[in-house]
Every structure is written in C-alpha cells, then in structure tokens.
Amino acid sequence: MTNHDPTSPGDARLPIPDRLTDAPRSGGMVVPYVTLSHRDRTRPVWGKMHAPATRRVWRHKLCQICGQPLTDWVVVYLRPVDYRRALALEPGMHPECAYYSASACPVLAGRIDRYHPDPDRHLALCGDRLCGCRIWQRVTDEPTELTGQPAEAWYEAWLPLSNYTIVTDHGNDTTPPTTGVDLRHVRLRRLRRIRDAAPGADEAMDLLAAIIVGRQLFGDPDDPQ
Description:
The chain is α+β, with helices and mostly antiparallel strands. It has one domain (18-218). Helices cover 17% and strands 20% of the residues. It contains 4 helices and 10 strands; from the N terminus they run E-E-E-E-H-E-H-E-H-E-E-E-E-H. The strands form 4 sheets. A 3-stranded antiparallel sheet has the order 5-7-10, with helices on both faces. A 3-stranded antiparallel sheet has the order 6-9-8. Strands 1-2 form a two-stranded antiparallel sheet. The longest helix is centred in the last third of the chain and has 12 residues, at 207-218. The chain is globular, with a radius of gyration of 17 Å. The mean pLDDT is 83.
C-alpha cells in the first residue's frame, strides 16, 4: 500500500516530481497527504493514515499523495483480492505521484515482504501541546488485519476520471465495511504488476495476472499513451 511503513520509508535519492516540490518531507522523502503526522508534518507516522485527510481525499476526489484534485487519468493500486471484491481500497493518484509512490514505498517497491510489523511503536506524544498526537487513537484509519502479514502482489491500473467512482461497501460477517473505488463494469487501463507476492502470501485466483497475459497475446490498443 502507498502508506506502508516500516522503519525505512524509502529511498531519499529518488527524484521528486514537480507536483510534489512543496510537499512536506521526512528524511528527504515526500510525506503523503493521507499519512498521519505530527503538527510538524516533517514528523510522519509511517504506516498510519490520518482518517480525516483520507475522508477528504475520497469525498473530493483528491490525490492521496499530493492532496490536489485528480484530473484526466487516475492511477489506483490494487491487489487480486481487491479485484475479486470489485473494490480498490487505495485512493487514486496522479500518474506522476503514483510513480513516485511505487518507487518510494518499501512494500510496493519490493524492498520488504511484510506489512508494517509494529505500527503503534511510532505513536509517541511530542512536546507540542497543539499537536493532534494526543487524539491519534481516534483519528487513524489503517487496516489492522494486514499488520505483519506477507505482502500480496500489487498492480497499477489507470482509469479515466469519469470512471473513478467512490462507493462504500458495508461488508458482511467475514469482510469489514470499507470505502473504495468501484471496479464493477470498469475496464482497467494500462494494467501492470508493480510487485510480486511475498513468500507465504495468498496467490489464489490472481485474475489480474490473467488479464495481463490476455492483453499481451491480443494487444490493448485503447490504453492511454
């Protein structure tokens, strides 16, 4: 996921897109708009999402990395399980923000094989009395079922903004409710795998891999250039 953590957020030597020039940085790395941070946003809590910021991103169709409105083509990251559910759980991004995120995020870049093993260890209070860290337990929004689990395969897909529809899935006895990008009846464009599944991850029914094979065999002339 674009906000996964752990001790090393990524490679500070990566070139930063123009759109992210003014974004806060920590250790030379851009801090995504949705990442939980102290009032000083150069002090993020890698691996935690700020729930109010995430709600704004969904409601106003903003990029989860830069916080600016999405335009034209939207990039979403998803796993095979998300595709089977027809719901991408990651908010969309501008193409250049997505490219930066896939290179910087240690999970997406394949530098680590497990989701943040101990995300709560960074939730320490700072000395700023005006900082929101005193209420962080009520403003975080990050799935706990992934903690410490092996990373699945992740894919990048492009959608035209007109197909970028946000819905709420109310879940069932085995699946918690969540908000995401509706993938029903949506044709995924420029689909590619950005990381392989880690050892021990569930690789059953990877329909996205099958779609890619089919496009390699028969071509995909409608992809954005």
